[in-house]
């Protein structure tokens, strides 16, 4: 009889201990889960057409921010769910609760900070001015009054406006270069990294890239969250920090950009 009493007490103690452990884990994840669009999934909004950040290869979504999104979600104990969306609808989609986070080469700006929260920056994007090879344009100061392509609402567009270029909206990098070759625009402001990635697989004959880092500071690229989703943001940043410390982010940068652009 004493044996069974001891056995039952031991089992009860183990059960209580195990339950307490489970409760603490659930409590830690419940705050995140309560903010998610879909429980157990990190719903990530991105374009899916902007190489090397996110694009399709053999009809499969891939790219720097796709691989990073998967790695972060895994660290958070979640499954990554990507929702390809046109740029013009991405940030609005976040605001309306369509996504948990947007990862789409998003630049930190004071205007965005008023409505949304940022993650810790994971790369620094340097601006580039791409023009015809025989163009007289040598710097951003030379784009004044000229037709310059950039995506609507992007930091690239802000640079065009700052230097008084005539903005021609187009968020697709490849078609922007085609427009320049066809003489429909004098150039485009985009990222140096996008140019390097495009040049790996496509001909850039007739074009030249001008690094304008001396005129425009690099942009800090981060994930974007709704102000109310502080638990998601905190968990994301914790996971990202671990991936930065173990070298994962640097390796992904070298894989997709050919160099380390995390610093």
What key attributes describe this structure?
2 domains, SBP_3_CS, 5-stranded mixed sheet, 9 helices, 6-stranded mixed sheet, D-Maltodextrin-Binding Protein, domain 2, 263 residues, alpha/beta, Solute-binding_3/MltF_N, ABC-type amino acid transport/signal transduction system, periplasmic component/domain
How do the helices and strands line up, and which of them pair or pack?
Elements: H1 2-33, E1 41-46, E2 55-57, E3 60-62, H2 64-75, E4 79-84, H3 87-95, E5 101-107, H4 110-115, E6 116-118, E7 123-125, E8 127-132, E9 147-150, H5 155-162, E10 166-169, H6 173-181, E11 187-191, H7 192-201, E12 207-211, E13 219-226, H8 230-245, H9 248-257
Parallel strand pairs: 1-4, 1-5, 9-10, 9-11
Antiparallel strand pairs: 2-3, 5-13, 6-13, 7-13, 8-11, 8-12
Helix pairs in contact: 2-8
């Amino acid at each position: 009889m004493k044996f069974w009493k001891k056995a039952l007490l031991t089992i009860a103690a183990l059960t209580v201990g195990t339950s307490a452990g489970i409760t603490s884990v659930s409590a830690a994840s419940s705050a995140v889960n309560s903010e998610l669009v879909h429980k157990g999934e990190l719903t990530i909004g991105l374009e899916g057409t902007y190489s090397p950040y996110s694009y399709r290869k053999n009809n499969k979504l891939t790219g720097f921010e796709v691989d990073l999104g998967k790695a972060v979600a895994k660290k958070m104990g979640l499954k990554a769910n990507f929702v390809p969306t046109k740029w013009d609808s991405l940030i609005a989609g976040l605001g309306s609760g369509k996504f948990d986070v947007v990862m789409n080469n998003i630049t930190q700006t004071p205007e965005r900070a008023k409505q949304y929260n940022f993650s810790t920056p994971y790369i620094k994007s340097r601006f580039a001015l791409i023009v015809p090879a025989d163009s007289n344009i040598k710097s951003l100061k030379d784009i004044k009054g000229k037709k310059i392509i950039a995506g609507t609402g992007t930091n690239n567009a802000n640079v065009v406006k700052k230097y008084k270029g005539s903005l021609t909206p187009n968020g697709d990098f490849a078609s922007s270069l085609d427009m320049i070759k066809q003489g429909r625009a004098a150039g485009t402001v985009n990222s140096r990294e996008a140019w390097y990635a495009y040049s790996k697989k496509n001909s850039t004959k007739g074009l030249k890239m001008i690094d304008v880092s001396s005129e425009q500071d690099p942009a800090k690229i981060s994930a974007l969250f709704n102000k109310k989703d502080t638990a998601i943001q905190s968990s994301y940043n914790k996971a990202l920090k671990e991936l930065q410390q173990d070298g994962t982010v640097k390796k992904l940068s070298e894989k997709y950009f050919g160099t380390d652009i995390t610093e």
